[in-house]
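User: Hi! I'm working on a homework problem where we have to compare a predicted structure to a textbook description. Could you give me the structure for the chain below?
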Amino acid sequence: MSEIEKAYWNHEVSRYLDIGESTLRKWCIELEKNGYIFIKGAKDSRAFTDHDLKALNYFKQLTKVKKHTKEQAAIAVVGRYGRGGVDDRTTSNQSGNNRSFESLEKKIEELLEYQEKQTQFNEKILEKLENQEKYIKDLIEKRDRLLKEKTRDYQEEDVTSAEVPKKKKTSKQKIIKEIFET
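Assistant: Happy to help. Predicted structure tokens:
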């Protein structure tokens, strides 16, 4: 794992270089015009590394001591210190980041494939559940129809069985009457 560089903010760098924050901003803008890249934080605020401090210190020497213009100093700084955030010191880290990015892309693709399979599986389960629900509903309706039919049949049998004994009694009574009358 690569070591993490300490980052400095505008007010820290301006104190270190003994310049105003507005001057620091102007120097950074000039360096950025010439291709130097600073690490950016929230709201495009710059975060400065030790490498940036060396580059800015060199910029100061060129402008203050050697009396170069800001543009000349910026060109010299970029020539000497590279492009800042994307120079040789970060190339190996970037290739590691690219590998991490590729690894993340691969994992995302795998997750998307898994999600698609899971979605298809869920659809099949829902279809089976719907079929099962329909089957159960049909069975319950069939059972209810049969129960109603059987209940009606039993009620009709009760009515007819209740009528039959009366007729039998009536015929028995007639027979008994006939026997005793004669």
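For your comparison, note the following. Confidence is low (pLDDT under 50) at residues 86-93. The first strand starts at residue 39 and ends at 40. Good luck with the assignment!
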